[in-house]
Write a structure and sequence with these properties.
The protein is mainly beta. The chain has one helix spanning 238-241; strands at residues 7-11, 17-18, 58-61, 74-79, 82-87, 108-113, 118-123, 130-134, 139-141, 165-168, 172-175, 193-197, 202-204, 207-209, 217-219, 224-226, 242-244, 256-258, 263-267, 279-281. It contains one helix and 20 strands.
């Protein structure tokens, strides 16, 4: 990890979907590891937690807001079967500008299914724009960038800051890979939630228990690999440059798996696709707004990409 900040727990969220069999996971770790704080204080929730049982996941930071920008804001409520996350898009860690786009405050309202449902078949994550929300209320984009350059991989192109994010046109700060700076450590942290996909399924740090007592932990890996030894040698599109190989890692095409307790979860892996490879659950479509830092997938695109 390159850099850390100190975080406050803001509100309590934790979603899970059901399927069958898999690794052991002793519940969501949530508040286990915040940067600089052994036990962060709980901020009272805006709604009855018995009606919003997702626990210890969303958090605000105490980094320095850029001059002229408001302090980070974040609220979470459960309303009408949805987890509603509102954020002004300002990072709660020290912002470092690495693109020509100056940071600007936003007005986000993310709506996630409170009880995720598995879809009849997987669907693509957007080529541009938000595909998930991190636990600090900021958007997560997919593993592609720059449509005018053929949707390249911003991680392999080294276009990201120390927290694996940067600003898009319109000043939209977003992550393309695991935001490790939000936590003191993610290594070995079983059940640590780093974000939620727009189908309401949690995205975890890539560690699971090898046994029921969790005496040993295992890092899980993506099952995608580069087709060429050197990225961009002849293939520049990030999806075309990678292929899914069943059994190469421990995760499926969507970069997730079903745990021993029946919950399906995604993992934020070190390598492509970094978050989700596709959506396994039913997506809350209103989150896929065109024009939010790049917009959704172009119309007429096939429903699933090839491996």
């Amino acid at each position: 990890m390159k850099r850390m900040s100190t975080f406050l727990l803001a509100l309590i969220i934790s979603c899970a979907a059901s399927s069958g069999g898999g690794w052991a996971l002793p519940g969501m770790a949530g508040a286990a590891v915040w940067a600089g704080m052994a036990s962060p204080p709980v901020v009272p929730a805006e709604s009855d937690l018995t009606d919003c049982p997702q626990a210890n996941d969303f958090l605000l930071g105490q980094g320095e807001a850029p001059v002229g920008q408001p302090a980070p804001s974040l609220s979470v409520r459960c309303e009408g079967g949805q987890v509603v996350v509102r954020s002004n898009g300002i990072p709660g860690f020290d912002f470092v500008q690495v693109t020509p786009n100056a940071l600007r405050a936003q007005s986000y309202t993310w709506r996630l299914p409170a009880e995720p449902r598995m879809a009849a078949r997987p669907t693509d994550v957007p080529l541009g724009g938000p595909s998930a929300v991190a636990v600090n209320g900021l958007p997560i984009f997919g593993p592609t960038e720059a449509p005018h350059h053929g949707y390249r991989d911003p991680v392999l192109d080294e276009l990201l800051d120390y927290c694996n994010g940067h600003t898009a046109p319109g000043g939209v700060y977003h992550f393309h890979a695991r935001p490790d700076c939000l936590f003191e450590s993610t290594k070995g942290e079983v059940g640590l939630v780093v974000g939620y996909a727009f189908d309401g399924i949690p995205i975890l740090a890539p560690w699971v228990c090898k046994d029921g007592g969790c005496a040993e932990v295992l890092e899980v890996h993506s099952s995608y690999r580069l087709k060429e030894r050197t990225y961009g040698a002849t293939i520049t599109n990030a999806w075309d440059a990678h292929e899914y190989v069943e059994g190469l890692g421990q995760l499926d095409r969507c970069n997730g798996t079903t745990l021993a307790d029946g919950r399906y979860v995604y993992f934020a892996t070190d390598t492509f696709p970094y978050f989700m490879g596709c959506y396994a659950g039913e997506v809350e479509r209103q989150n896929l707004q065109r024009g939010v830092g790049g917009g959704g997938p172009p119309p007429g695109r096939p429903p699933m990409r090839g491996g």
